[in-house]
Amino acid sequence: MKRFTRMGGLALLLAFALVVAACGDDDSSGDTLGETTTTAATVTTTTPTATTQAPTTTPALPEGKPYGGEAIVANDQEPPTLNQFVPGGDNSIVSLVGNGYWTGVQDIDGFTLELIPEVVTELPTVTNGGISINADGTETIRYTILDEAVWADGTPISGDDFEYTYNIIMNPDLPILRTVYEDIDPASIVVGAKTFEFTLATPTLQAELIFGVLIPKHDVEGSDFVNDWNDTMWVSAGPFEFDQWQKGEFIRLTRNANYWKTDAETGQQLPYLDSIIFRFIPETAALINAFKAREVDAINPPPSIETIEDLQSLQGEGASVEVLSGPIWEHLNFQFGDHRAAKNPDSYNMFLEYRRAVVHAIDKTKIVDEILKGQVEPMSSYVTAYSPTLSLDAWDRYEYDPAIAAGYVADLCARDDTDCDTNPPTAVFSTTSNNDARVTLSQLFIEMFADAGLGYEIALEDSSLFFGETLDFGNWDLGEWAWLGTPGYAGLVSAHDLFDPEAPPPGGGNFYHWGTPEVTGEDPDGFNQGPSSLIDENTARFAQLRDMMNATVDVAELTLLVNEAEEILADQVVIIPLYQRLDPGAVWADELAGYKHNPSQAGHTWNMEQWYRVDL
Questions:
Q1: Could you give the 3-state DSSP secondary structure of residue 114?
Q2: For the stretch 95-108, what's the b/e string if a residue is b when 16 or more beta carbons lie within 10 angstroms of its beta carbon?
Q3: Residue 339 contacts by C-beta under 8 Å, 6 or more apart in sequence?
Q4: Across all residues in the chain, what is the average pLDDT?
Q5: How far apart (Å, rounded) are the C-alpha atoms in residues 413 and 426?
Q6: Residue 325 Rama label (left phi>0; alpha psi -120 to 50; beta)
Q7: Cβ atoms 344, 426 nearer than 8 A
Q8: Per residue in 545-558, pLDDT tens?
Q9: So what's the pLDDT on residue 27?
Q10: Do residue 245 and residue 275 come from a single domain?
């Protein structure tokens, strides 16, 4: 699976929460719709060789962590470019390397998975005065840049760099996505030596994601931005500087002697390492073998169970393997549109008793044990994939209990508007046939549904069909796929667009047709269908909540809105969160310390300035 870029990726502002994670050829990986693809580099067994370069300047050794040495990180992809702003720059490996020399407003903490400030003193909020809503309904945002923040050549990072970055992004001749930036009033921009201020036409939390990567005006101005920064990189503001790219083999970064961050624990100047090598090994087996042979120090391999268990067998030899819940979350869901009849003309999805019977029939612990070998816990809420601290774990109320499920089936069949004798409650389950995990899931459901007294049929499809006509037109009854989450409020707010009763496809993203109006006059005709089979006070309130979320920048208010929305989706069993896909990180901890795996878009190189060798 190819991951998304570091939070600096302006091209992905709204896409984080709203991208379907499609199926792959195995139980652990998948392409993400909307991403660009890259051609794998030719595998090489050649270790990067030394090149002539200026002697590394190593600071005097205070009491604390040791300076010096090199770390080698291996990846199965090679960057198509080093420039994050041009086509191909949204590839995950671009940002994994870029973590070494980029800087911007925010980063994602690998311990808390929350947004944290990087080049600014604090992330702007209403509470700290960094955000204000004006009388005319506009939103003003103010950044205060750290006094000590400088580029590698000693030039202070300033408001001029923010303004220059904005001007590059807004250049109509450049192929850059301008979402959110285009809402900035150019006349409102105020530039200071260590400040930057601007005003947006309307309030939005999406602004928390912008200016994630800054461009140094003094180094880039006058260059050909699209062509000059593909094979080399502008002056660094990170812990390392770009040194060399040997295509098909490796990229080398060397220590930035002017890096402005210090270790909060020891007070030492960062980074500790003299250099970092990124090796490109496209074949998974070769990647794992290189790690086993200690030819590389750290890897973030494809998350197959076999690979994880293979790496975990090395922990007695000095390896540390951290397996975390990644940002991709799998969920079971119900189709409420009339096109579900294509799979199940006798669907009972509109009845709450039926949906509660299904959720109590699902043994999520067994699913995680069978598919992920118990490596992570089942999900209790979709909110966890975006902001764990805000989650109410609202689905915990539904324990696995076939007897409770059978009770709901009895209540369903006792209704005056149902006829279980003629049409017994039956689910027709659809997902992708070329993903081993989902095929396994379809088999696990057979016994679970039977124990609850529910009928069950399997209707798997090739991914090209399922993520094409089936998803677009709502041609399923009970479905399963994944969404991609991201830390921060912006992605969490956007996630609720997925259930917006006012936004059915093709104009909106509510593929479930929960509470949606009739759709007419669309081409192709498959989009056209009647109003949702379930429109009630809950769908009406959710639509209000979604609009309120998108109109506020007050975090306290947003938290209450998200909590209420989560409660509705759980109480009404609109979806059933299952699990987050695994994301492993492995390091030879007896050689390299300070490594902390980060399963978010920041990637496992997010804190490479903290890495140091313990074997010197």
A1: coil
A2: bbbbbbbbbbbbbb
A3: 473, 474, 475, 513, 526, 529
A4: 90
A5: 12
A6: beta
A7: yes
A8: 999 999 899 889 99
A9: 40
A10: yes
CA distance 70 to 274: 6
Higher pLDDT, 10 or 516: 516
Query: Do both 386 and 281 map to the same domain?
Result: no
Mean pLDDT for the stretch of residues 156-168:
98
Q: In terms of pLDDT, which residue wins out, 66 or 38? A: 66
Give the list of residues 6+ apart from residue 64 with CB closer than 8 angstroms, or none: 263, 266, 267, 268
Same domain, residue pair 360 and 244: no
**What's the domain range around 207?**
10-16+30-37+66-301+601-613
In angstroms, the CA 470 to CA 512 distance is: 11
User: Is the per-residue pLDDT at 10 higher than 80?
Assistant: no
Model pTM?
0.84
Contact 342, 356 (CB under 8 A): no
Which candidate, 550, 559, 429, places its Cα nearest to that of 493? 550
Residue type, 522: E
Q: What 3 state SS string does 233-263 have?
A: CCCCCCCEEEEEEECCCEEEEEECCCCCCEC
The answer to whether 108 and 115 have CB atoms below 8 angstroms apart is yes
Q: How far apart are CA 600 and CA 577, in angstroms?
A: 19
Same domain for 507 and 545? Answer: yes
Domain membership of residue 24 (yes or no) is no
Interacting residues of 52 by C-beta distance below 8 A, sequence separation 6+: none
Written as one string, the DSSP assignment of 504-534 is -TTTS--TT-SS---B-S-SSGGG-B---S-
Q: DSSP secondary-structure letter at 418? A: -
What type of residue sits at position 206? Answer: Q
Burial of 84 (0-12, 13-18, 19+ CB in 10 A): buried
Residues 451 and 338 in one domain: yes
Read off the CATH number of the domain in which 81 is found. Answer: 3.40.190.10
The 3-state DSSP class for residue 414 equals coil
For residue 145, pLDDT beyond 50: yes
The pLDDT score that the predictor gives to residue 450 is: 98
Number of domains making up the chain:
2
Q: Are residues 278 and 350 in the same domain?
A: no
Q: How far apart are CA 40 and CA 38, in angstroms?
A: 6
Phi/psi at 67 (5° precision): -95, 155
> What pLDDT was estimated at residue 551?
87
Q: For the domain that residue 368 is a member of, what is the CATH number? A: 3.10.105.10
17 has pLDDT over 50 = no
Structure tokens at 133: 């809503």
Instruction: Specify the residue for token string 């080698």.
Output: 72
175 touches 226 (CB < 8 A): yes
The b-or-e profile of 201-230 (16+ CB within 10 A means b, else e) is eebbbbbbbbbbbbbbbebbeeeebbeebb
User: Which residues does residue 328 pair with via DSSP β-bridges, in sequence order?
Assistant: 484
Q: Mean of the pLDDT values across residues 144-154? A: 98
DSSP letter string, 350-376 = T-HHHHHHHHHH--HHHHHHHHHTTSS
Check whether residue 290 and residue 381 sit in a common domain: no
**Residue 205 has what pLDDT?**
87
